[in-house]
Amino acid sequence: MRRDGRLSGILHVLLHMAQRDAPVTSEVLAKAMQTNPVVIRRILAGLREHGLVRSGKGHGGGWSLARDLSAITLLDVYAALGRPPLFAIGNRAAAPACLVEQAVNGALDRVLDDAEALLLARLGEITLATLSADFHARLASRGGVHRSESPDVA
MF terms per GO, please (predicted)? Predict the structure, then answer.
């Protein structure tokens, strides 16, 4: 199963946005993420519906964070992305007739439910402020030089 990198990617975008004092255009963000601006707009529109970002049109327009970094958790972003599947493993059949497979499904369901609850709880504990602080610590350890993906994004 292919990995879903949207959460990682959009967290990357949000942290780039947080480094700016002004709104950032989809084109600039797309350049940093090496993707199409339409992809960025589509994802950010979903985050706008959840109150995480806002957009402005016209000269000086673009995308900006709608809340403080400390008020946005990784769980908030995950939920705004539509809660994509967390695990690539699962049951072979949802309602098997075989008693052996029913036992396997029961065990896997319990383990996966427990793992998902732990992961979601942890996502709820980490804020964008936490990620930003980590970025700034890494930046300081490099002497304050940030090698950005794009010269247009801080």
Answer: DNA-binding transcription factor activity
